[in-house]
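ok trying again, last paste got cut off:
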Amino acid sequence: MRYFNIYSDTKNPQPLFLDWYNKIKPGRSDHEIYCEIQDHNHFLVDLNEEIQFMDLISHPYFMVSKEFASLIRLYQPQVQFKYATLFDKTNQRTAFFQIPNLPEIDCLHENSEISKDKSEIITGILSKENIPSFPVFRLGGIKGRYIIANLDFVESAHRREVTGMRMKEFMIK
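nice, full thing came through this time. structure:
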């Protein structure tokens, strides 16, 4: 099976969250953030009026559109979600996102090339015997945020024309 890191395309500007750190203390792990946020959240954002909201937001936290959340539910019905309403006050528009509580799995192979501070994977290798049966999961054992998806999931996302998603294949060893 092939696995990919999925993330938001840097060519598509992400909304700037204006009040994120007023609600979420910095330095928290993704699991701690998920536990701290409410079931329904409201965030002020800034996004150029000519740019549409993409289906995937990577920063400051992994969030997906309703359509992308439906895909996650199709492949992993046990994943729980919380909700986020993003309000762009300047342009008077609202977008609705869902925040998945993806399982965190430490399956990064020891031969992976990682930055000194363990926040960035330069060459990603997954340990075959530690890869779970989940089609999409959060990579554990590293400071950075890495969402890993198998080929079937990624192909389904492309068939559904998910906007703003990029991917980078990880090797398997």
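cool. The chain is about 15% helix and 35% strand. Helices lie at 20-23, 30-36, 66-75, 151-159.
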